[in-house]
Amino acid sequence: MLKITEDSLLLVGPAGQLPVPAHDPILAKLAMLYEGECEGSGPTAAAQKFGYSKQRYFQLRQVLEKGGTLALQNQKRGPKTNYRRTDQVIQQVVRYRFLDPAASAAVIGQKLRQTGQAVSTRSVERVVAQFGLQKKTPRLPPRPVSRRGSNPAQPVAPKAPARRSRKSRTRRPPTAGR
User: Fold this and answer.
1) Would 152 be classed as within a structural domain?
2) Domain for residue 39, yes or no?
3) What domain count does the chain have?
4) What is d(CA 123, CA 129) in angstroms, rounded to the nearest whole number?
5) Is residue 48 part of a domain?
6) How far, in Å, are 44, 81, 128 from residue 77 at the CA level?
């Protein structure tokens, strides 16, 4: 028999009881199936009691029959394969990048879409990043060497202003009579 509390499930038998955490997904599903099939409460009542739909109850019953209790464990959600970035798409992205290194991810994505490949610009960016095909950025010129010496906290003495010579800066010879 099952007893359900807020924080645990209790499996109760003639000799005692066994507490099991309520957040154990395998046992919660198994307890629901046990209650629906063996205790006589029915699929609808058992599913409602454990927070599942009637359809999910029957799905879990079928999974249990085919794969046992380990098949009741939660599976990874989402896509199982790379159906957008196939090997062919990756090869084409690398090819387009080598043919035109200045082409952006948007341009490469547009070329792929024109050939019938369903690929987004973000997928192209991921392929470019995966293979290290980013555009090279120009390096900054080297910084001038500081005149400070080894101690960066030492201030640099201001340079004295340049003195002008007293000679005339014009190229004209001096005129007589002035």
Assistant:
1) no
2) yes
3) 2
4) 10
5) yes
6) 26, 12, 26
